[in-house]
Every structure is written in C-alpha cells, then in structure tokens.
Amino acid sequence: MKSHALLVGLGIFLSRIAGLIRERVFAHYFGNSDAGDAFKAALKIPNFLQNLFGEGVLSASFIPVYAQLLAKKHDEDAAKVASVIGSLLFLMTSGLVLLGVLATPFLIDVIAPGFTGEKRDLTVQIVQILFPGTGFLVMSAWCLGILNSHRKFFLSYVAPVIWNLAIIAALVMWGGKQGQFDLAVTVAWGLVAGSFLQFAVQLPSALRLGKKISPSLDLKLSSVRLVVRNFVPVVFSRGVVQVSAYIDNVLASLLPTGAVSALAYAQTLYLLPVSLFGMSVSAAELPAMSQATGSDEEIRHYLQGRLNKGLEQIAFFIIPSVAGFLILGDLIVGAVFQTGEFTAQNTHYVWMVLVGYTVGLLASTLGRLYSSTFFSLKDTRTPLQFAIVRVIFATLLGAMLGFYVPQALGFDSQWGTVGLTAAAGMAGWIEFYLLRKSLNKRIGRTGLSLKFQGKVWLMALLGAGAGALVAKGLLDASIHVIARAAVALSVYGLLYFTLGYVLKVEQAHSLLQKVLRRIR
Question: Fewer CB near the last or first residue (10 Å), C or N of the chain?
C-alpha cells in the first residue's frame, strides 16, 4: 500500500505544485478582479461535467469490476469492459459538450446570477471555449481507470502537469500584452490545449495495458452491466456534491467582488493535502480492496485491517496540515499567491476563507477512504445517501453562516465567504460520521485510536506553534513572505517528525529510520 500510495502521492504532488504555480501566475495577472471572478466561475460549469463523469465516478464503478477481472485472469473480458465503457463515455461526453456550448447563456444565469454586463458576457464566452476541453479530461479519467487497475499509478496522476503547463504558458506569453478580459479568453484556449495533451499522453499506455481495446457498444456482458448499474448511483452522488459546490458559487457570486476568486484560491490550497494524502491512499487502496477474496469473514477482516492502516496513514499527514493552515495559513497563502495584483490584504482574506475549509479537512480525507471501501464492496448507493445528507446540511448552514450570522454580528458582508467554507466543513463531519457508522456495522469496528490522535495532534500543534514563533516573532516582518514561510515550515516539519520519533509514532519512526539508514 505504501509504495503504491507513494507513486500516487508523488504524481499528485508534482501536478499540485504545477497547479500552485499556475494559480500564483494567475493571481499575478488577475488578483481578485472581475475578469478573475469570470474565469473562476466559468470553470465551474464544464468542471461539473468532468466531475460528474470523470475520475471519481470511474474509480467507484469501473475500477472495482475491471480490477477484479484482471485478478481472476479474465483479460479478454476486462478488455471488453474497458472498450464498452470508453465508447459509452465518448458518446455521452460528446453530446453533453455540444449541448453545453449551445446552452451556456442559460447556464450562466444559474451558476452566477450576480454577474451582469461585460462580466457576464465574458463568463459566457469562456465557458463555451472550455467545454470541448472538458470532454478530453473525461476521457483522460478513463485512461486513469485502466492504468490504476494495472497498478500503474504515476503516469495517470502526473499527467495534469501538462495541463497546468499549457495554462501557465498562455499566461506568461500573453500576460503582458493583453488586458485582463482578453487574457482570460486566451487562457481559456490554453486550458483546452492542455486538456488534449493530458489525454494524449496517457492514451498509448492505456491501450497497451488494455490490449484488445476497440470501439464497442456491446452491453450483453454481465460485467459491463454491473459497471453501468454502479455508474448511475455514483453519477448521482457526484452530482449531489457538484450541486453543493454550485450552491456555494451562487452564494459567493451574491457577495462582494473577490468572493468567487477567494473561494477558488483557498480551495487550491485546501485540496493539496486532500489530494496528496487522502486521494493517494484511497486511490492505491481501491484496486487492492476490490481484489479481496475468501469467505465473508475473511473479506471483512482484510478490509478492516487495510482501512485502519490507511486511516492512520492519512491522519498522520492531514492533522499537521490542519494545524499548519490554522496557525501558519497567512504565511502559506502569502508565499503562494502574494504578488502583483494580489496584495497582503488579499492574503489575509483568503487565509480566513481557508480556515473555514480547514474545519472539515480531516473528515473529508478520511471519508474518501471509507467511500472507497464501500465501492470495493460494489456498494455505490450508501455513499450517495450520505452525500445527499451532507449537501442539505451544507446548504442550510451555508445560508445561515454566509449571510445571516455575519449580518447579525455586524461584520462586513465579505466575511460571509468564511461562513460558506466553514459550513461545508461542518457538513463534511456529518457525512464522515454516517459513513463510518454504516461501514462499522458491515465489517466491524474501524477508526483512529484516541492514543494515536492525541500524539499526532500534540506533535502538530507544538510544531506549528514553534514555526509561527520563529517566523512571526523572531524574523523581521520586512523579510519576504516566501522566506518567512520557508523558515516556518522547515521548523514545523523538523519538530513534527522529531516528536513523532520520540513518541514512537509508527509512521514517523519508520520514515526517519529509513533516512538514517541511508545517511549511514
């Protein structure tokens, strides 16, 4: 598990670093401007299609079936399943892309009703450009499903680096030559080019591993019908999650200028640990869990052991991420985004929005692994039910904390954005509780021990506190924020792993022992 999770994590790390560079360059040219808001809002609509039929859905419905066929040495049937699912995806996304381009003017009024005039017109134009690129990203997710099932994790998760590089190239080449509105259109075309390249770089390996893959719409194979049957609940589940994101975007568009961009900037940082540590472990575990064989009791024991180990592995990195965002978030946001149009005031604002997201960071990442366990059991309906509950609570809490509470407390309306993200975090804990309770009834008790949590929280708070003391208390404020952030995070990381070694936390102990052996 560790070696496969490491490959996933490394690929995601490289793509996320490229994503952070992309966001920093984007922030330099757009800041929290109308053009920036338009571009970020425009991304929501085609991304809805990508998320609806992309990686998450295929991981839940396609990988468990395809991976089990490979485990049973039914390679020919596996190739047939991959062929039919790929063909269905191509036809489905092609139709939706065409429909999306034509319906864009109507969709804008749904996703960003607060946009008017030139800002609205620009958003419409960008969405129509982006839709075709989304089709390539969905097919890229099909490639990922094949690669992951064959335990080829690195290429599929490092491929988005090309997508990011195409956008960065567009920003750098035309950033100094065009106004913000024209530049936003140019960057949209760069995104489409990057989407094609991301698909193209994975396709040869997917076809080679899948062997006899060819266009087919043969739905007679029982494995194909199983994928399709599992596909529907997951699509609804992802759709429910996307509805939640859509509601957040709608509410943010009704807040002052900068709210939509601030959400996007904060989400970039929030998703980094989610992807690196939550997704990496969950993605590596899903094919392994799906290949479990034996009696019902043996399968339950196997899943229970892998799940508990995975939860500890995730928490070991997510808990310090939570502490880091809470205590060192201003330095982290400043180091990544503070340049050009993105001022120190923007940094503080985005930090507060990030703090709201951080409320549910641990729940969201642990919940991913619980969902993967359900998927490995071919159960896609239970996560759907709990996702619906989460969206209901996120919507109700978001409206209350985003508008009514700030107004009642006399805060500026821009701080409603913090309420929106905090509401999403609270709803995430509700979903996590329901997932854990339901799965525990099926496979036995799972979860993190209080002893383990106590040690890791102590390590994280002491490490982050020491980093803040050095960077904010001892270093001169005139030193560039990137340098201060580097010092703070270095102190934090060193102390965190040292304390982990002293307290004999397995993850820290094994990692430091490996490092010491190599030094010797």
Answer: C
